[in-house]
Amino acid sequence: MRVGVVIFPGSNCEYDAASAMSELGATTEFVWHTATDLSHLDGVILPGGFAHGDYLRPGALARFSPVMGALADFAKKGGAVLGICNGFQVLTEAGLLPGALVKNRGLTFLSMPTTLVVSSTRSVLTRAATVGQELVIPINHFSGAYTCDDETYAALVENDQIVLRYRDNPNGSRDDIAGISNVAGNVVGLMPHPERAMSTLLGSADGRVLLEGFASALADGAAFVR
Amino acid sequence: MNYPIIVDVTLREGIADPEGATIERALPALGFTGVAHVRTGKTFRFGVEAGSESAALETARSLAERLLSNPVIERAVARLEA
To answer: How far is residue A111's CA from residue A50's CA, in Å, rounded to a whole number?
Structure first.
């Protein structure tokens, strides 16, 4: 199983993500944002950071990086895609996930552990977890409040696309949403950082069950079918 | 001809604007009363080389919708600079 971690100019969590996936047995490689072929990979991670300086809006310029065209094809074919924090923002800007992430309620940059509740297990990220399971995973963002119109929200609920919720909403996200998937479940985005919750020595190992799920999705041949 | 364009990007109705709300809450302390519905946004200025005013606006609207704004949360209005 081979996972690519995309590096945009300004990404800064790529080593954490690669290290976590390597620890879980995946072969990891870095993919520069100008790459146009992802066909040799089983999964792709868009890491946290500030792609293209987050100028204009987080993810707005990253969406036009050459790799994003290849990523759209990869996702359409059922490849496993995970966007963490800034990666989630990039996925929404690119239209690979619905909705948008706006400034936190309270206008403060939030860097702290949060308790998440698993809401759905039919995604490549949450498949190894159980519904209702609580996970302590840190957040580190300024624009992390998930928002969408009523129609989109109804579709998210209808299709079981809300995969993780905050137990105590820290940022004003609609319906406490911390992470969502696409309809097929192979593309997932979340604001919290599971790759920073890999060891109790560093505060929490609760990210493991999520990334283990992602790694197992890669091993199963990437394509995730409900 | 080069047409000077202004694009205003504002948050859609119903999208929370914590920045606008914070500004609004600060106003009474400064003695400004009767000010409500504060919404923040962004303004972009640029020149567009085009054959006509409508062609320049067409280009401006297209790039405003594709790049300068996120239609999920924002509304973009392009106009000719007076």
So the answer is: 15
